[in-house]
Write a structure and sequence with these properties.
mainly alpha
């Protein structure tokens, strides 16, 4: 939720940043340079967000693996000689947790990609409007 809000705020700021210098500048080349710089800034921001998202996914995966290993160690400590049924039940529980985690990771990735796509579309529209503004002002 916080990421979505941050992304929305960043995109809005970027759109305004791209439009304001373009509208305020009277020189056409300066205006177009401002538009190009806003495009580069947006691309760099998306790249940084993608890296941050991937890093957080990796950290969550690492933490999940450690949690699973700790659960296995605790199970083995509590049950020095577990029966076959107990082992199967534990493995099934671990597998279910693993699948749920994978699904959570997939949905987070899908949501992130969609937000990136939406931000890119908004940026393109903003760029187009800023370029049009540059062309109409002398």
């Amino acid at each position: 939720m916080f990421r979505k809000l941050t992304l929305l705020l960043a995109c809005t700021t970027l759109a305004l940043t791209a439009a304001m210098p373009a509208a305020a500048s009277h020189d056409k080349s300066n205006c177009m340079q401002a538009v190009a710089q806003a495009k580069k800034s947006f691309h760099a921001m998306q790249k940084a967000q993608k890296k941050q998202f991937n890093d957080s996914q990796k950290a969550a995966k690492r933490a999940f693996r450690q949690q699973q290993q700790a659960a296995k160690a605790a199970f083995e400590a509590q049950q020095p000689a577990p029966t076959k049924a107990q082992r199967r039940a534990f493995k099934a529980q671990q597998k279910a947790a693993r699948e749920a985690f994978k699904q959570q990771q997939r949905s987070a990735r899908t949501a992130f990609k969609q937000s990136q796509k939406t931000a890119k579309q908004n940026s393109k529209q903003s760029q187009k409007a800023a370029k049009q503004s540059c062309k109409t002002h002398p």
